[in-house]
Design brief:
This protein is an alpha/beta fold. It has 4 domains: about 30 residues; about 150 residues, Rossmann fold (3-Layer(aba) Sandwich), CATH 3.40.50; about 230 residues, 3-Layer(aba) Sandwich (Rossmann fold); about 100 residues, ANL, C-terminal domain (GMP Synthetase, Chain A, domain 3). The protein is built from 17 helices and 27 strands. The strands form 8 sheets. It has a 5-stranded antiparallel sheet. Helix 3 crosses helix 4 and helix 5 crosses helix 6. The chain is globular, with a radius of gyration of 25 Å. The termini are far apart.
């Protein structure tokens, strides 16, 4: 047999093999519903009770570390403060299921009312610490808290909002500023009954623990009810192949507790009695210093950390020993594969992957199995992996709701025991008749059942009869060698309804024209994908507290400036 005949026979065998493999995978799917492995979940008590048990048993272990000063607090220190606040709240009539709202920076004090509320079986609602009067009014109107903890610098904003709404919660200040309201420092320093007279309330693990506000990027923020089970489930499941051991490993947390990623890390912080290194404004070099200093093994990078870190000068990166890190995940917003590749170089011993999740889902429904999938993940840098344990996923046609096969774009729906309890005080809930949650995200999966997130459905719009998916345009722009990052927004237009505008950040010292970038898009995506409202070249993209690109701010900037796109 000559070489050509051999190659043809070999290729035919490969085709037959993959066809057979796909038939087998298809057989394992039920009506195009892809299921992850099922494993037991062992949540035994509420998050507040877990903290209490850990503080009783490991009270002298470090609970939190100040990223800037290195100051520390132990589990026992934090427990003592939280008990004093909980007793004060109880004396003032706080009962289970009452809403406690907290607006404070990511510092030592912010965790205290959170734990105090959990001890009492209350619903804890942390809100964005940079909120304005509009946000404060919306949050207060929707949740009507019985108690409000607020930092000194936001007190006047919340007082104004409360006056407008004629609401009268009990108010405590987080800080030392003198006011007519009681401060947490006063509670800490007052001599009150000791902790042996107090025990946490026993709470149903499926009861709501946190009310987290949705980002509001595509609609008005909604209160998302997250249970104790949801927060604890992924950490307490029986899993012989857990990606890595979390015991005693410090976490770096710069996102406030109004985001589910920070709540996930808090629960691990408690369950595995490991310290959390906390701060307010993330600086990329400070982050590297902290990784080196505390020999961090696993890190979660939000978009506003991942991109600056991936573009940081090698001379700065090389100053720090990052060899302790063996797991890196990125999330919050899409991080382009070119930056994932660079992060693999920076953390040369780590498994670096993008992850996907949402507050409503309560978990990451997709995962790359570590370490077995490490090499596969390197060939699929824009994939978020396979279906995770205890999760079921389907991709459906956005018009008919029909479940789709591989390589077909549709909305991603997820069913799992970790999902939210529902939206707070709302009758309309985003579940289908089979209990699958509508994520509102456009995606697809390939023949290997690896999933890809393409865009938010509500960000898509029609232009000249074609659907524009801004996320796909952003991904294409990010492939240009001169482009550091890009965000695409839709602006109203009298004749066309909407037109796309691309906001672009170029690499330092680079120059590009609108035509050059537009032609680069068109070459792959077609003429209709060229941003008809043009390009704006920015020094940086605005991001919110969770590290996501702030599309609403971009829209406001250019709607205000131009009125409508022309």
């Amino acid at each position: 047999m000559n070489t050509i005949s051999f190659l043809i026979s070999y290729l035919n065998c490969l085709v037959y093999f993959y066809r057979f493999r796909w038939k087998l995978i298809k057989f394992q799917m039920e009506n195009f519903i892809i299921k992850g492995p099922t494993v037991p979940i062992n949540v035994e008590k509420s998050l507040g009770e877990y903290f209490w048990d850990r503080a009783e048993k490991y009270g002298n272990r470090i609970f939190q570390i100040d990223a800037y000063t290195g100051a520390t607090e132990t589990f026992k220190d934090v427990q003592r403060k939280a008990v004093r606040v909980a007793i004060n709240l109880k004396q003032n009539g706080v009962n289970p299921k009452d809403v406690i709202m907290i607006c404070g920076e990511n510092n030592f004090d912010n965790i205290i009312p959170t734990l105090a509320g959990l001890f009492l079986g209350a619903y804890v609602a942390n809100v964005v610490p940079t909120t304005d009067i509009y946000g404060a009014t919306n949050y207060l109107s929707d949740l009507k808290p019985k108690v409000l903890f607020v930092s000194d610098n936001k007190l006047d904003i919340f007082k104004e909002a409360l006056d407008v709404l004629n609401l009268h919660p009990q108010i405590y200040t987080i800080g030392s500023q003198k006011s007519q309201f009681k401060s947490m420092n006063e509670i800490y320093n007052n001599s009150i009954e000791e902790k042996h007279n107090f025990v946490p309330k026993k709470v149903d693990i499926h009861e709501t623990a946190f009310i987290l506000l949705s980002s509001g990027t595509t609609s008005k923020p909604k209160g998302i009810c997250i249970s104790h089970f949801t927060i604890l489930g992924a950490h307490t499941r029986e899993d012989k192949n857990r990606s890595y051991d979390l015991s005693d490993q410090p976490f770096i947390i710069f996102s406030p507790l109004c985001y589910i990623s920070s709540i996930w890390l808090l629960s691990a912080n408690i369950l595995f009695t490991c310290p959390r290194v906390i701060g307010v404004d993330i600086d990329v070099e400070l982050f590297l210093k902290l990784v080196d200093k505390y020999k961090v093994t696993g890190v979660f990078l939000t978009y506003n950390v991942a991109v600056p870190l991936a573009t940081l000068d090698e001379k700065i990166v090389s100053k720090y020993d990052l060899s302790s890190v063996f797991y890196v995940s990125t999330g919050g917003s899409f991080v382009h594969p070119k930056y994932i590749s660079r992060l693999m170089q920076i953390f040369s011993k780590a498994f670096v992957v993008p992850i996907y999740g949402s507050t409503e889902l309560g978990t990451a429904p997709f995962v790359w199995k570590f370490p077995s999938a490490r090499e596969v993940a390197k060939t699929k840098l824009n994939s978020v992996g396979e279906v995770n344990k205890n999760c079921e996923v389907k991709v459906v046609d956005v018009n008919t709701g029909k479940a789709l096969g591989p390589n077909q774009k549709g909305e991603i729906l997820v069913r799992s025991p970790y999902r939210m309890n529902g939206y707070y005080n709302q009758t309309d809930q985003p579940f289908d008749e089979d209990g699958f949650l509508h994520t509102g995200d456009l995606g697809q999966y390939d023949e290997d059942r690896c999933f890809y997130i393409l865009d938010r459905l509500k960000r898509s719009f029609k232009y000249l009869g074609n659907f524009i998916y801004p996320g796909l345009v952003e991904e294409r722009l990010a492939q240009h060698p001169l482009v550091k990052e890009a965000a695409v927004i839709e602006l109203p237009h009298d004749a066309d309804g909407y037109r796309a505008m691309a906001c672009v950040v170029l690499n330092q010292g680079c120059i590009a024209t609108e035509k050059e970038l537009g032609d680069f898009i068109v070459k792959v995506m077609g003429e209709y994908s060229r941003p008809a409202a043009g390009f704006q070249f920015l020094k940086e993209l605005p991001v919110n507290n969770n590290g996501k690109v702030d599309f609403n701010k971009l829209k406001l900037m250019y709607k205000t400036e131009y009125g409508t796109a022309t």
